[in-house]
Amino acid sequence: MNPIESILENKPHKLYVAAPDDMVLEAVEAMCAAHIGSLLVMEGNVLCGIFCERDLMRRVVLAGRDPSHTRVQDVMTGEVVCIAPDVPVRDAMKLMTARRVRHLPVAERGRIIGLVSIGDLVRWTAEESVHAIEDGQHQLFELTEYVAGRYPG
User: What distance in Å separates the CA atoms of residue 17 and residue 138, rounded to the nearest whole number?
Assistant: First the structure.
């Protein structure tokens, strides 16, 4: 199975980030504008955490906090697992399942180069399955043609 870098190649190269001191409302507005479910929380080039929809629901809404007066750093997920771009998609999916996360930052030589979501991985897996089925059908056709004596090879 191809590594995560093949998924990153087909995504925009922009990183969506929030600063630790940003207010949650600003972060949510940025997420909605970009149609994404999480923001990397970064201080310069240093990853401090990740803020996602689950953090918003559990740590802001259910806790009764005011998003316009709550800092992202106070409600973000601080313990973030990163993966390398050469990690196979299957391994990334296993990690997401085990950690119960929907987003994984991708880091190379200590620098964040992208982010993959569970949606990205599912989409890639579905496309790979379609290609495998098409390849299998083509091989079956060639075998049938060969057995019938019509294969030009």
Answer: 45
